[in-house]
Amino acid sequence: MSDELERQGVKTNNKLWTATDLINELDKVYQAHWDYFTAGAELVITDTYQANVQMFTQAGYSEQEAEKFIRDAVKVAKKARDDYEQKTGKHNYVAGTVGSYGAYLADGNEYRGDYELSELEYLAFHLPRLRQILAEKPDLIALETQPKLDEPLAVLNWLKENASDYPVYVSFTLKDATHISDGTTLEQ
């Protein structure tokens, strides 16, 4: 999302990163999704990687506004998908994106994982965003740029109990060719 939105003139050099455009530039988010579908993408990710309730409230928005921004991110991705299908007949998919706690720290920790939270702390952070994403019914969930194993496991365990019908994929950042960033082996 960042490259495409920056190409459209969205200023992402702030803690909200690409979530900045959810406040008043949804047309650019729509256009980004449309452009990816036009280029041949069969799946787009919602603009929610950095769109978490905590970051929006720190930026001065209410919790209700933050929740609306997150829901709007899913709605606009689905609208672009549906409009594209109506025009071309090709059905594509929308993944509701959840970035790591490290991304929220906005200091490169999504690539290092230099933080320790309990399962409950991970859920307290992720569930306000994840519940809004799920409420808008994307096709699947994407847990992206995960530097640690315990963080996505906390979310996956919650999803198994509360939204088991959703397909999920997890992408990790790597320390080297055989370990994710926290040192966990790929085999594990």
Question: What does this protein look like?
Answer:
- Helix content is 48%, strand content 14%.
- The chain has helices spanning 2-7, 21-24, 26-38, 53-58, 63-88, 101-105, 119-135, 150-162; strands at residues 43-45, 93-99, 140-146, 168-172, 174-176, 179-180.
- It is globular, with a radius of gyration of 16 Å.
- It has a 4-stranded parallel beta sheet. A two-stranded antiparallel sheet has the order 5-6.
- Helix 8 (150-162) links the parallel strand 3 and strand 4 (168-172).
- The protein has a single domain (2-180), classed as Homocysteine-binding-like domain (TIM Barrel, Alpha-Beta Barrel).
- With 188 residues, the chain is of the alpha/beta class.
- Helix 3 (26-38) packs parallel to helix 5.
Oligomeric category: single chain
CATH class: Alpha Beta
Distance between the termini: 30 Å
The whole-number mean of residue pLDDT values reads 92
The name CATH uses for the topology is TIM Barrel
Read across the widest sheet, the strand sequence of neighbours is 1-2-3-4
The largest β sheet comes out as: 4 strands, parallel
Shape: globular
Strand segment count = 6
How big is the Rg? Answer: 16 Å
